[in-house]
Amino acid sequence: MIDVDGVTKRFGRTTAVDDLTFTVRPGRVTGFLGPNGAGKSTTMRVVLGLDRATAGRATIDGHAYRDLPEPLRRVGALLEAGSAHGGRSAYHHLWWLARSNRIGRSRVAEVLGLVGLDGVARKRVRGFSLGMKQRLGIAAALLGDPPVLLFDEPVNGLDPEGVRWIRGLLRDLAAEGRTVLVSSHLMAEMALTADHLVVIARGRLLADAPLDEVVGDA
Ligand code: ADP
Ligand code: ADP
Questions:
Q1: Could you say which ligand is closest to the alpha carbon of residue 152?
Q2: What is the pLDDT of residue 84?
Q3: Who's near 85: CB < 8 A, 6+ residues apart?
Q4: Which atom of ligand 1 is least distant from the CA of 45?
Q5: What is the C-alpha separation between 121 and 98, in angstroms, rounded?
Q6: Considering only CA atoms, which residue is closest to atom 24 of ligand 1?
Q7: What are the ABC transporter domain coordinates in residue numbering (predicted)?
Q8: In the chain, which residue ranges form alpha helices assigned H by DSSP?
Q9: From ligand 2's centre to the CA of 113, what distance in Å?
Q10: Nearest to residue 8, comparing CAs of 41, 31, 39, 30?
Q11: pTM for the full model?
């Protein structure tokens, strides 16, 4: 479970997130919807301890991210694509992440298979398309088999087949009882993917409700 409790984040004069409160529950896909610049990434970064809240607090299963034992086994996250070192192979990138988190090497081959990158595991990430980088980021998020997952705009750069694949993956992860938060600026995409929506604009909460209450029978 993810708890965002009265979180405000300011960057100088810009209020990116404005007294935002919501809870992300396990067993369903929660869509985090809002236009570009609404504050979705910043909220996720606060949850992940990458940005410090100006006010309020975010916790994962009751702990601030920095207090989580074995963070990668507790929370998986996909932020922007391309965070992997371009000169490394996909395998090496994941192997390095696994090793620094004491995750067994066999899990690396497993997640490469899960995201469909097994055929290009030895190729350098530099040559990857945006879609392949997204898949690699998702593999990294899944590496620790975490019960809590955050995906920031995961369908960006994916072709229609990749979009359908992500949709299925998110639904499977939720069906396994995991807590899944996925951001998007695309209402139509969220309507096909999410069970529950948290809608924000200008850093503020607009709606926190089951999908059918927000979009009807679209
Ligand atoms: P979203 O993910 O919904 O597109 P963001 O969280 O990226 O929105 O951005 C929310 C607002 O905060 C925007 O106005 C953005 O320009 C601003 N912002 C985000 N990160 C920074 C930063 N590191 N420094 C200054 N402003 C930022
Ligand atoms: P680099 O390109 O920097 O040599 P690699 O991705 O080739 O990095 O490999 C990183 C580590 O993972 C090395 O210890 C390598 O032996 C091991 N390794 C790479 N590919 C596999 C694989 N398919 N199965 C098992 N171990 C592998």
A1: 1
A2: 66
A3: 93, 125
A4: 6
A5: 15
A6: 11
A7: 2-218
A8: 40-47, 71-74, 90-100, 106-114, 130-142, 160-175, 187-193, 211-215
A9: 16
A10: 39
A11: 0.88
Q: How many CB atoms are located within 10 Å of the residue 69 CB?
A: 7
The partner residues of 33 in beta bridges, in order of sequence, read 184, 199
Computed on alpha carbons and rounded to an integer, the radius of gyration of the chain in Å comes to: 17
One-letter identity of residue 103:
I
Residue 58 in tokens: 């975010």
Left, alpha or beta for 2 (phi > 0: left; psi -120 to 50: alpha)?
beta
Q: Which atom of ligand 1 is nearest to 44's Cα?
A: 6
Inter-residue contact 38 to 201 (CB < 8 Å): yes
Residue with tokens 């690699």: 136
- The whole-number pLDDT of residue 197 equals 97
